[in-house]
Amino acid sequence: MKKQILLLLLSIIFLFKGCGDVPPGGETQPPADTEQNTCAPENHKDEGNDGYCDVCNEYVIVLVDFYTLNDLHGKFADGETHIGVDEMTTYFKNVQATDQVSILLSAGDMWQGSAESNNTRGHIVTDWMNALDFDAMVLGNHEYDWGEDAIKTNAEIAEFPFLAINIYEREDNTLVDYCQPSLLIDEGGVQIGIIGAMGDCYSSISGDKTEDIYFITGSRLTDLVKAESNRLKTQGADLIVYVIHDGYGKSSYGGSTSVSSSALSSYYDSSLSDGYVDLVFEGHTHQRYILRDTSGVYHLQSGGENKGLVHAEVAVNAANGKHEVVTTEFVSADTYRNLPSDPIVDELLGKYENDISDALRVVGYNPTFKNSTVLRNLVADLYYEAGVKMWQDSYNIVLGGGFISVRNPYELPVGDVTYATLQSIFPFDNDLVLCSIKGRDLLSRFINTTNSNYFVSYGRADESDVIASIDPNGTYYIVTDTYCSTYAPNKLTEVERYTPGVYARDLLADYFQRGGIN
Ligand SMILES: [Zn+2]
Ligand SMILES: [Zn+2]
User: Fold this and answer.
1) Under a CB-based contact definition with an 8 Å cutoff, are residues 71 and 325 in contact?
2) Closest ligand relative to 205 C-alpha
3) Which residue in 232, 333, 334, 332 sits closest to 278, CA to CA?
4) What is the CA radius of gyration of the chain?
5) Around 192, how many Cα atoms within 13 Å sit in the side-chain half-sphere?
6) Residue 291: exposed, middle, or buried by beta-carbon count in 10 A (0-12, 13-18, 19+)?
7) How far does the centroid of ligand 2 lie from the alpha carbon of residue 91, in Å?
8) Distance from CA of residue 3 to its chain's centroid?
9) 473 phi and psi, to 5 degrees?
10) What is the tally of helices (H) and strands (E) in the chain?
């Protein structure tokens, strides 16, 4: 009898509780005859891989669109030979508004190369990337042109992370604090892992700018990327995207081209394509291609300097993580050239007006058209001339010049010359420097070099006379810049820096101020 009363009491209590909230962990199954509810995204199942959840029948394919820009080199405002980013901004905003998930990435070398970017140390470009909600940027070699402090300041401004798995501090062998190795993006029910790396670009950075750091390259980089890929997958990544500031050496303008592992081997270990990396965005070589490696993984690069961007669309099954690249395309600047300008570019030009306006001044007049070869020979002449003026009493200077590279627009038309134009062609902040060198090294590194980027000047002397006078065991003096002098294979010993500090563009500005005559 007592037992029956107890059972009755218990069932009353249970009934009473049942009228209120569902107890935690309690069953929430809907009655069988009502419409089926959608399950939580993490509970979707699609064992048959038909694109529909086995439990709730919802469509579980998510389209993820990746857009990557590489080597913008500060081409921010409209110039004589290039368009600015105002139309590209409109293009990005349009796709961001219509895509299910769009991811915006940069493969590096964004800042160096124009008056508006150089004179703001890249801040104008970083601000623009913030406005567009870039997801991540991989550092390129030219991000180091102004030293690590400029990168750190940009990192403070950036509302997106800088990625590089392989840039380490010499002092304690840790990753530099302004980079993170990867990023896990959780959007639209899918998780996307992005791993970034600097390529083997040592020789493209002035040695004095990288004294405190080193890049891990080759098989050790491969090991790092594989470990990071595994780690991201453990955290739930459905897809791994690898962005590296290095790339293939040739353009292939058409559709996707098959490429052998050996053709990629200078910068990419094809074993990464065996399940570690699903899509690769590249940069640095300024080439334009869509390649498919032997494992079927796509490699894309957009050419640089605002000639376009690359786009890949990946269909990801949110229930089982299976994915497939469904579209790859090169979006040429012609695609967005005629779109309306977005006001952000003018807004930012206004914000930084004080930094930029000085560079727009006319420095002089150019009386004859000069292509890049003429300009580089001219810089070698000016190095020699400036060096002789400064040091002629103490040193017998044999030549001026060195590894002299130029950037878009690569040439100078007849007419007024602004400092900004010279800054676009010679954006590098490499100081003029007097160096000593052994005769044999002078002959092999500077005189008989087969590297087409080496330009030298002997002033009024004849090259054959200079060569005849060089004793391989003797010591000679040359005037070059710090980019050349800090490159170890050149075997140069720095004697003295030119004061006050001048760069190639400053010597040119002075030259055109004199009317373009030596
Ligand atoms: Zn570049
Ligand atoms: Zn580069």
Assistant:
1) no
2) 2
3) 232
4) 29
5) 28
6) buried
7) 25
8) 78
9) -95, -5
10) 16, 22
Q: Which of 175, 187, 188, 173 is nearest to 59 (CA)?
A: 188
Question: Could you tell me the distance, in angstroms and rounded to a whole number, from the CA of residue 201 to the centre of ligand 2?
Answer: 7
Which are the contacts of 121, defined by CB distance < 8 A and separation ≥ 6?
Answer: 111, 146, 150, 153, 154
Burial pattern 448-468, b for ≥16 Cβ within 10 A else e, equals: ebeeeebbbbbeeeeeeebee
pLDDT per position as a tens digit, 255-282: 788 999 999 999 999 999 999 999 999 9
Tokens of 95: 């796709």
* CA 249–ligand 1 middle distance (angstroms): 13
Least distant ligand from the CA of 143? 2
Residues 55-108 pLDDT 10s: 999 999 999 999 999 999 999 999 877 889 999 999 999 999 999 999 999 999
Cα(123)–Cα(140) distance, integer angstroms = 16
- Full 3-state SS string of 73-88: CCCCCCCCCCCCCHHH
Q: Work out the percent of the chain whose per-residue pLDDT is above 90.
A: 84
d(CA 195, CA 180): 9
- The string of pLDDT tens digits covering residues 202-232 is 777 877 788 899 999 999 999 999 999 999 9
Distance CA 141, CA 271 (A): 25
Which protein residues have their CB within 5 A of the ion that is ligand 2? 109, 140-141, 284
Determine the distance from the C-alpha atom of residue 154 to the mean position of all C-alpha atoms in its chain, rounded to a whole number. Answer: 14
Which residue type occupies 95? V
Tokens representing 140?
Answer: 């390129």
Find the 495 Cα to ligand 2 centroid distance in Å: 29
Point out the ligand nearest to the CA of residue 139. Answer: 2
